[in-house]
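ok trying again, last paste got cut off:
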Amino acid sequence: MDSIILYKSRWIYPVSSPPIEGGVVALSQGRIHAVGKEKEVRSHFNGKLRDCGDGVILPALINAHTHLELSALRGQITPGLGFVEWVKALLALKEALSIEFLIQEMKWALEELLMSGTGAVGDWVSSIQSIFLSPPQGLIKRNFYEVLGFLDEELNLPDILNEKNPIHPSGWIFLGAHAPHSTSSSLLRKSKNWTRERVLPLSIHVAESIEEEQFLLSGNGLWREFLIHRGKWNSQWSPPGKTPVEYLDSLNLLDERTLCVHLTRAGKKDIDILRERRVHTVVCPRSNQFITRSLPDLPYMTQIGLTPAIGTDSLASNQDLNLWGELEMIHRSFPEIDPVIILRMATWCGAVALDLQDELGEIVPGKKSSLFFLPLGEVSVKDLPLAIINSNGIGLEWI
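nice, full thing came through this time. structure:
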């Protein structure tokens, strides 16, 4: 086969199978053609051999949840304010900025993602300009157009979401129904129906704060006060008296094409519902720690086989968009979780959540050659997954 290049490394980490020592991956025209031991691969493929050296070849990381439109807010909000005060600060800052400035900062953020080994990102957007912002070469951007409105009943979407566009086909633009405490039940249902008709994912922030939980259980609390202050309160609304997960389940929103993001307040019963409905979950641990000083019950999720994808959330609640910081925090906070599972969360689980499982997430023939080399010192196969996590991605190079 023409133009095959063979990349060799001390280790290759396919994700879907055990690490390969002394492995080679054969790449051509942006695709993986083979991966395995050097002798085996070279018996089938001739090509220029590039020895990357002592380290590991990995598939691209996948950041399953961000809000790049908030990149201009980096370092401007005090950590630990609590959810409602954080929202107030965010809105005050964002509303003072032009869309042109926000877009410029988004461009820098996209470059930052690529430099840290991210090959795909799930980005929530609220403007046409954000949808049409092209990512740098090597980075796939999945757009989740934000649907928000506690008073609204109609699903008003830009024309592009209801057309087949040659540059941004409908499969690349999904919906993000903001949250059960900020989006009316009518809009939540209509958003899910829109995505069901097109066989596309729907993303929702769920169980992110105690204020959300209190509001849905009783109709009272700081979130109600916030809605009244913003002129968004619906006097006809009655609280469902359920947890956020139970509420979404009662609306028939939970299925295998729903992404539930955050889940810091999700209890075991909620998590069991998510697993039963085959929902994709996404956790953003550093953002949760920044806003509410809390983390999701990852040990229980992984124990029952509900392995989440990982997102950084926005720069309004995180210091950077580097997934390596999330990996380190998950391992530090939950050392009982196998590092193999943590790496799977950052790769394969993100690919599935963003409907990219046919392209990314593992090193197997047929997938995109979205791979990078990470230099490591002497390390055994047993210690390799943890060594990868502890590396913080330092020195990685795309291949």
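cool. The CA atoms of residues 150 and 184 lie 5 Å apart. The chain has a mean pLDDT of 94.
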